């Protein structure tokens, strides 16, 4: 029996020995600062899934069955380190940062490169440097972050459209929108049925980095769609190591930033009497700007998960974003989900990546122009409510805007899926084939309706406009990449084929005359009494491309890149179906030379030079093909029936609605770039300087034929010899202090000078912006004039009010008359330069960042002032500003003519956003075993703006384009911008 006990004890001892584990603890710090690094992945070499990560103070504890081995320490931005262990022990591990941004990976077309190997002008913005706050789209993330990139919101509406101009305006009619590429998928810029920014479907918190391919060398690999440059968006991917969960929650409060200085009720009474007007005094004291705006509340919740091992990684997220606008019935709701997977097999030769983004997008828009007009012109003596109900007895028989805003709705529901799968296989070392299959499918339904309303003084017929749009974009790509390195020579060859097919269809109908029965028009379309207007369209465009690129480097000193892309588009005729877009670039890493290799002052110095051509295919579909329609008007018919007495009895004839234009060619942008990248003082000071010269030619435009006898009134053509020239200088500088101290800081900024000019134009003016309403509709405000910038303001020069109380304008040609020939070039909408700067401060666990941006040298036409702020309106009991009383002798019937009277300085400096943050150690509140980090933040957006502009905000553009030529710099009752305070909580598990 004793033997049995002894054997059991021996067995238990053996088992306890065999299950004994080795425990390794320690601390991970940065080198040389010795600051703790939280979130470092710690795992046994070869087993990344069986690991841990450092806590907020850089501490870790990990157990192994193995008695000895190698522990891997890995963290983004630091060099991976391997440390051997043997038995139980405590380690202190120091990680060194990557020496500079030269080692960061830059996404280029169909691949990536180290920053040190890049020969083109490429700017990158990482997620940690994005603008903070209530952000709906990509443009808001990078505004002010990149030299040469001018981002201007059309208005203050949530998710508003934007003008993103990269290195100047380079086209007459194709707009400013760059090509967006999301995880290798090129988006289509055509209609998807969403009235606000089409990029609102991407959750900003899913984005890891944004790379802007600015020069032709970098962008030419995308050929015919890169004339406005290329923006490459990379979403967050999983990384090997311990799984991570991140929860981000924000709440924001927004209010009207700036009021326009219209008269108060008491001042209004005095001013109406002063101009001998008819005062309609309602006896109240109402601030309509307060009454028709609100404190908007926005919430955002985002949950993300990521992780993986050496064979497989994943990243997934769910987001809910609810943004309110400061005007009622103005909301943007986005429900998004994202999944990114990557799987390796066959000894890591076979790799499959999968990206899926699904978004449900709801956008409610008010009748902003009407509301803003009411805010500024409503009689301030009128009461909003009487006995708790909306006042129905307002001045000038105006319908109370409280009622009209409830009766109006514009709601869009959009469902969109963006997905691509990209398997690749490495046949031999360095030779990889990749297939990319993607689809971008969008379907939207937009209902614009007005509820029927009847009162003693106002009658509104109910109406409904229903629009259904589908957009299907399918991409097939095949690429072959070969990496070859021998001694000091390094080659990368890329060859590829791409086919993309875009199908867009739209159906709509208009109904009116609905009964007042409490049912919304969209739910009783059969009850409409007025005639129905119907419309439908469908287009199908195809793009087939062949492309190639050679990257060569010798000894990491001398770099060469050459690309060529041939694009064939169904938008062009048989005679010019294909366009060819080449580029070449050179790079010289000067610091690799012996005379600088050991320099302690100069850490990096690289010279870049490039030349290339890109194109634009952003023209309407089918315009190269003839089109016909039926008509029995004018000379389109013949009196075949002798009994016919008028045209109604004549048969219909077939006539041209569009001529065939098989010779139309691509717009071409030719660009030269010279650049210098540098880092000094142990990489504390870094920057870039670029000079560019970009010339756009073969400009496409719809014009009237010179011969008056033509079968169609307008036709598309490449305007002979006409060019748009952009040249300028870009500078970016960043400086960082010693990060080893408790207090550290970084400062930096960028500035871009761009000179834009139209050359060799055969036209006196091509109107870009025209006046609206008040007898001025169509009158030119700005346009395209030879040897002048695009968007130059062209108008009469206002010199005062004459003795007769009327406008006086300068007689510039001295003929004694004031006619159109007296108009002058009075300024431009595009700025001379744009600039931005930032300040980052850090003290222990506190951090603060402020981002500023601004423009100079541009003007804004205050269409609101021209339409509303005049003496005549004041005399009729409409509110105005002191513009109406500026000239005491002005007649109340004086016309509001387009002139320099309403042209203002549009320069500004804005504190775009500022954030104060605190990183709270979970250990301090007893949650160290549950959470890795807790971050609290307070963010302010649009905290102040310094400007001379008298409107709501100088950053806007709500003018009406004419003849498909984009408008710039016109304020026509723009949706006001808001000031936002945001509270944020981020928890990492």
From TrEMBL:
Keywords: Cell outer membrane, Membrane, Receptor, Signal, Transmembrane, Transmembrane beta strand, Transport
Membrane topology type: Multi-pass membrane protein
Family of the protein in this entry: Belongs to the TonB-dependent receptor family.
Protein name in UniProt: TonB-dependent receptor
Pfam families: CarbopepD_reg_2, Plug
Taxon lineage: Bacteria, Pseudomonadati, Bacteroidota, Flavobacteriia, Flavobacteriales
Keyword Cytoplasm: no
Record domain TonB-dependent receptor plug: where: 115-230
Signal peptide positions (record): 1-20
SUPFAM superfamilies: Carboxypeptidase regulatory domain-like (SSF49464), Porins (SSF56935)
Intracellular or extracellular location(s): Cell outer membrane
């Amino acid at each position: 029996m004793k033997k049995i006990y002894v054997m059991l004890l021996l067995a238990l001892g053996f088992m306890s020995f065999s299950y004994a584990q080795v425990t390794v603890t320690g601390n991970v710090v940065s080198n040389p600062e010795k600051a703790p690094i939280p979130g470092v992945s710690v795992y046994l070499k070869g087993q990344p899934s069986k690991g841990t990560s450092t806590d907020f103070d850089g501490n870790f504890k990990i157990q192994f069955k193995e008695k000895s081995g190698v522990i891997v320490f890995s963290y983004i931005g630091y060099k991976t380190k391997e440390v051997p262990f043997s038995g139980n022990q405590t380690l202190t591990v120091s990680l060194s940062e990557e020496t500079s941004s030269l080692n960061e990976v830059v996404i280029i077309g169909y691949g990536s490169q180290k920053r040190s190997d890049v020969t083109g002008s490429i700017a990158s913005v990482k997620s940690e440097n994005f603008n903070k706050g209530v952000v709906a789209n990509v443009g808001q993330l990078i505004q002010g972050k990149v030299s040469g990139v001018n981002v201007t919101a059309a208005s203050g509406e949530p998710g508003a459209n934007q003008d993103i101009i990269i290195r100047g305006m380079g086209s007459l009619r194709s707009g400013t929108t760059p090509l967006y590429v999301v995880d290798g998928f090129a988006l289509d810029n055509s209609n998807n049925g969403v009235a606000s920014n089409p990029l609102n479907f991407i959750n900003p918190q899913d984005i890891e980095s944004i790379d802007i391919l600015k020069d032709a060398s970098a962008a030419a690999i995308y050929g015919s769609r890169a004339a406005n440059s290329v923006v490459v968006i990379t979403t967050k991917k999983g990384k090997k190591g311990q799984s991570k969960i991140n929860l981000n929650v924000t709440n924001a409060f927004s209010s009207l930033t700036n009021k326009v200085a219209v008269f108060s009720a008491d001042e209004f009474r005095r001013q109406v009497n002063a101009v001998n007007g008819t005062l309609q005094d309602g006896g109240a004291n109402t601030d309509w700007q307060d009454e028709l705006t609100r404190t908007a509340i926005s919430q955002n919740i985002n949950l993300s998960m990521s992780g993986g091992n050496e064979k497989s990684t994943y990243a997934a997220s769910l987001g809910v974003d609810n943004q309110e606008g400061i005007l009622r019935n103005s909301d943007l709701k986005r429900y998004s989900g994202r999944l990114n997977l990557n799987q390796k097999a066959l000894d890591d030769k076979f790799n499959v990546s999968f990206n899926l983004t699904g978004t449900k997008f709801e956008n409610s828009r008010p009748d902003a122009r009407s509301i803003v007009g009411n805010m500024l012109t409503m009689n301030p003596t009128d009461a909003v409510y009487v006995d708790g109900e909306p006042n129905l007895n307002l001045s000038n028989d105006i319908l109370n805007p409280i009622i009209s805003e409830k009766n109006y709705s514009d709601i869009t529901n959009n469902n969109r899926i963006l997905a691509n799968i990209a398997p690749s296989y490495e046949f031999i070392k360095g030779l990889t084939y990749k297939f990319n299959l993607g689809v971008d499918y969008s379907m939207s339904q937009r209902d614009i309706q007005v509820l029927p309303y009847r009162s003693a003084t106002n009658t509104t017929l109910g109406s409904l406009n229903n629009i259904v749009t589908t957009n299907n974009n399918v991409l097939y790509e095949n690429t072959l990449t070969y990496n070859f390195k021998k001694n000091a020579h390094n080659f990368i060859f890329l060859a590829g084929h791409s086919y993309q097919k875009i199908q867009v269809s739209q159906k709509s109908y208009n109904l009116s005359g609905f009964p007042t029965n409490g049912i919304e028009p969209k739910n009783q379309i059969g009850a409409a009494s007025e005639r129905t207007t119907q419309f439908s369209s469908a287009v199908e465009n195809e793009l087939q491309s062949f492309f190639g690129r050679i990257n060569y480097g010798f000894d990491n000193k001398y770099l060469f890149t050459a690309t060529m892309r041939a694009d064939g588009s169904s938008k062009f005729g048989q005679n010019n179906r294909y366009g060819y877009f080449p580029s070449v670039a050179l790079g010289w890493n000067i610091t690799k030379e012996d005379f600088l290799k050991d320099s302690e002052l100069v850490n990096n110095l690289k010279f870049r030079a490039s030349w290339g051509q890109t194109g634009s295919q952003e023209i309407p579909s089918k315009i190269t093909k003839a089109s016909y329609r039926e008509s029995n008007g004018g000379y389109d018919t013949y009196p075949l029936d002798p009994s016919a007495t008028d045209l109604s009895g004549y048969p219909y004839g077939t006539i041209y609605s569009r001529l065939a234009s098989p010779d139309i060619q691509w717009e071409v942008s030719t660009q030269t770039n010279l650049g210098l990248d540098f880092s000094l003082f142990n990489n504390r000071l870094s920057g870039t300087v670029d000079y560019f010269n970009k010339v756009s030619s073969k400009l496409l435009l719809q014009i009237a034929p010179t011969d008056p006898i033509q079968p169609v009134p307008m036709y598309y053509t490449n305007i002979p010899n006409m060019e748009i020239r952009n040249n300028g200088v870009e500078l970016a500088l960043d400086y960082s202090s010693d990060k080893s101290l408790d207090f550290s800081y970084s400062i930096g900024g960028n500035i871009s000078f761009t000179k834009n000019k139209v050359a060799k134009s055969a036209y006196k003016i091509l109107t870009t912006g025209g006046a609206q309403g008040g007898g001025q509709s169509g009158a030119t405000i700005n346009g395209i004039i030879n040897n002048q910038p695009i968007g130059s303001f062209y108008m009469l020069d206002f010199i005062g009010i004459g003795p007769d109380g009327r406008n006086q304008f300068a007689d510039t040609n001295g003929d004694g008359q004031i006619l159109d020939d007296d108009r002058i070039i009075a300024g431009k909408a595009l700025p001379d330069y744009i600039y931005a700067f930032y300040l980052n401060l850090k003290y222990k666990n506190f951090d603060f960042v402020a981002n500023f941006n601004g423009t100079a040298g541009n003007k804004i036409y205050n269409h609101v002032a021209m339409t509303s702020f005049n003496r005549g309106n004041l005399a009729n009991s409409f509110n105005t500003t002191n513009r109406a009383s500026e000239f005491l002798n002005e007649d109340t019937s004086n016309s509001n003519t387009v002139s320099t009277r309403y042209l203002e300085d549009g320069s500004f400096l804005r504190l775009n956003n500022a954030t104060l943050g605190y990183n709270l150690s979970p250990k301090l509140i007893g949650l160290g075993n549950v959470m890795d980090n807790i971050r609290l933040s307070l963010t302010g957006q649009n905290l102040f703006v310094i400007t001379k502009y008298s409107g709501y905000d100088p950053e806007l553009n709500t003018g009406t384009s004419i003849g498909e030529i984009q408008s710039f710099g016109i304020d026509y009752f723009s949706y006001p911008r808001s000031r936002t305070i945001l509270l944020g909580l981020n928890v990492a598990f």
